[in-house]
Amino acid sequence: MRKITTTAYGIRLPIMQRNDNLINTVVDSLLEACNTHNIILNDKDIVGVTEALVARTEGNYATIDDIANDVREKFTDDTVGVIFPIQSRNRFSIILEGIAKGVKKVILQLSYPTDEVGNRLVSNKAILEKGVNPFSDIFNEKEFREIFGYETKHLFTGLDYIEFYKSIAPNIEIIFSNNPLAILNYTDSVIVASIHTRVEDQDVILNNGGKNVITLADILNKPNDNHGYNERFGVLGSNKATNSEVKLFPRTSETVVQDLNIRLKEATGKNLEVLVYGDGAFKDPVGEIWELADPVSAVAFTDGLKGTPSEMKIKYIADNQFKDLRGKELTDEIVKTLKTTTLDSSNKDLSEGTTPRQISDLVASLCDLTSGSGDKGTPVVLVQGYFDNYSDQ
């Protein structure tokens, strides 16, 4: 019996710049890593490429002025509300600067005690002690400071995002509410800055008096020869590249996935699954922050990564059908069951309690955790044995 199945390897690549040949570099680096470390590739192995590398090599960048011009065109120098952004220098500060540069005034509505992905503005203890109802209470900045003082520094960065966002431009005013309709007290022109609840938030505002209401996915979402864009996600998923520029979410992920699949088959004779991945869907247990600032975890992937895992609960089988067996006899019976049983409504107990997650999102999260976001230099991840189960002896 094999004692090791699923493994994930971070593959180091040369530092790549805009317009470098991504496909050639990924294939060459993967084959070199396998040769160096005696890794044998198999059918159904998975190669993940981070979205940042795809966007970088395709040159999908935009400036503050590009954002400002697009926002100005959509709002004609109006007073614009911006609701529910996350607290992030990397993810939102330059977008906010571009928005502020493109309109007369920005009313920035922050959620509390946390933003959408869990970055904490104030503690739950303070909320309870002050008798504040975060479901209904609305505050301007002065009122918020009078109640909570300056207990607003981020756990990890030490940054006061109220001060930071206000300092980005002189025409930014901040309010605090978890009700998306609160912004309509100030303006009916709104940019919804939430990531995963953006469609719901936009619909609520439009159905209750909002006139010109867009999301971050509607900014820089049209083809343009002068700057980057993303037709599906706009500036969602963008990252700060320089003090005046953002790298947008990649546009060519589907093509990259298909091209890599073909090239790897030509080079290895194996049919490898390929995906482009963003932020993994996991929660930091200390800071209680969801590492999910991208609009999706799995940006694009080959057909073999579609669907949900077929997960049979071995512990249920062992505790029920074969509770009197031990050792090799128990192992043999479980292996036989795994090989001969098809999960359906007649034996739902065998999978009851498993979470119906998408394979693509699970693999994307594994890749993101493996590659990290710092100085490892491993924007490509090789996953082997992911589709093995206990019957693969």
Write up what this structure looks like:
It is a single chain. With 393 residues, the chain is an alpha/beta fold. It folds into three domains: 7-59 and 250-306 and 360-384, 2-Layer Sandwich (60s Ribosomal Protein L30, Chain: A), CATH 3.30.1330.100; 61-247, Rossmann fold; 314-350, no CATH class. The protein has twelve helices and 14 strands. The protein has helices spanning 22-37, 51-58, 64-75, 93-102, 124-129, 141-148, 161-167, 198-206, 253-268, 314-319, 327-340, 359-371, and strands at residues 7-11, 46-50, 61-63, 79-83, 105-110, 139-140, 172-176, 189-192, 212-215, 239-242, 245-247, 273-277, 298-301, 380-384. The chain has a six-stranded mixed sheet, sandwiched between helices. The chain has a five-stranded mixed sheet with strand order 1-14-2-12-13, sandwiched between helices. It has a three-stranded antiparallel sheet with strand order 3-11-10. The longest helix is centred in the first third of the chain and has 16 residues, at 22-37. The chain is globular and about 70 Å long. The mean pLDDT is 89.
